[in-house]
Amino acid sequence: MNIILIKLFVAHLLGDFLFQPNSWVAEKESRKLKSPKLYLHVAIHAVLMFVLTIGSGWYLQILLITLFHLIIDALKLSLQRENTRRAWFIGDQAAHIASILLVWYFTLKPALSFDLYNNQRFWLVALGVIAITWPASILIKIAVSKWAPQLNNSLSNAGKYIGIIERLLVFVFAFSNHWEAIGFLLAAKSVFRFGDLKDSHDLKLTEYVLIGTLLSFGIAILAAMAVKAMMMI
Q1: What is the C-alpha to C-alpha distance for residues 193 and 216, in angstroms, rounded to an integer?
Q2: Which stretches of the chain are DSSP H helices?
Q3: Is residue 85 domain-shared with residue 131, that is, in the same domain?
Q4: Of 108, 131, 166, which residue sits at a domain end?
Q5: Are 162 and 140 spatial neighbours (Cβ–Cβ below 8 Å)?
Q6: Rounded Cα distance, 121 and 191, in Å
Q7: Which of 29, 99, 202, 225 pairs as cysteine with 68 (C-beta 3.0–4.6 A)?
Q8: Are 102 and 130 found together in one domain?
């Protein structure tokens, strides 16, 4: 990856997160295109890109990325509604990244390589990762469904996403032979769960959580080991 592209991404992260207080975000959302903070925010982005890429001669490219940034932010502020904030945040960041990539690509015109598409190791890892996300969630849900307790104060689908994240972490740790990290993760989850299980005084809930956790960790470990074994064939 070209160092200019990395610096442009660093400038974006600094400008959009580190050097943009919450008060600026609130003022932009309330005053929209009339907010001076919008234009100050965009100017900070331009300065950061200029400072980080100084000596590269990317003056026109920085101006173009800055213009794209202003247009993207203006569209977001004009069209965003309270119930679409999350979608617009994701779309806004994706658009900023895409604009940086496009300017970088058409400036340097790097050769594109599709070697990864035909790389067996890549597809084996992809297979393992996909298998331990939603397919594993459905499998575990079916396996423990007859013991599932009624949790009235739980977030919607929270358990599913917690399970997916923990299996991804376990997969990475097992795949990279960092077994001690799996023990740390299991211990951390036990600490967070201990209060709930102790206060509930419900043996069935404890057993349900334990079965689900062991299934989740076991599936991720087996997937990582299977992928590593298939890579050696």
Answers
A1: 15
A2: 3-13, 22-31, 36-52, 59-79, 85-108, 120-131, 134-144, 158-175, 179-200, 203-231
A3: no
A4: 108
A5: no
A6: 36
A7: 99
A8: no
- Same domain for 95 and 137, yes or no, is no
User: How far is the C-alpha of 154 from the C-alpha of 213, rounded, in Å?
Assistant: 17
Nearest to residue 4, comparing CAs of 100, 113, 94?
100
Question: Which residues in 117-141 are b (16+ Cβ under 10 Å) and which e?
Answer: eeeeeeebbeebbebbbeebbeebe
Q: What is the CA radius of gyration of the chain?
A: 24
User: How many residues would you count in the chain?
Assistant: 233
Domain that holds residue 103: 3-108
- pTM of the complete model: 0.80
Q: What angle do CA 56, 59, 61 make, to 5 degrees?
A: 100
- Token duo for residue 8: 């442009």
